[in-house]
Please model this.
Amino acid sequence: MGYAFNANEMLDLAVRIEENGGRFYRKAAQLQADSENRALLEQLAAMEDHHKASFEAMKKGLSEAATMAATFDPLGETGQYLAAMADSHGGEGSAAVADTLTGKESMVQIIDIAIGLEKESILFYLGLRDMVPPKSGQEELDQIIREEQRHLTQLNAFRKKVEGKGR
Model:
């Protein structure tokens, strides 16, 4: 089965990825003994929550064309496929990434993991761009990519701050 996604489906994917990203930061925060590190990680989790809310708001403003099914899908396989992609694509949205944390990671290591995951997410969305018809959501997908790029910039700033404190 070939897939073409609309903006609504892409935003559902983005919401799920942000939820999984929030789980990563919350798990990392739980494993931190230092309250300042814990607070920083909780702030990063809150940023993921904000991204999720932004994507949910974008969904509410979609045109009818952006919510129309791009392919014939009587069994609802597209949604299942997107959920599997969100959970397994290896970027920030991978639900399994949080499970790899042991609590022995430094803050710089955690942020480096997050930066790598964010980069993978950006590449993932760029790869999906060809699967979204122009009038069915490429603009929204571009907004998702820009939001992820801003998050990458923020993570780099956090890394510099943490690195300066020697954590």
The chain has a mean pLDDT of 81. The helical segments are 7-30, 35-60, 77-88, 107-128, 138-164.
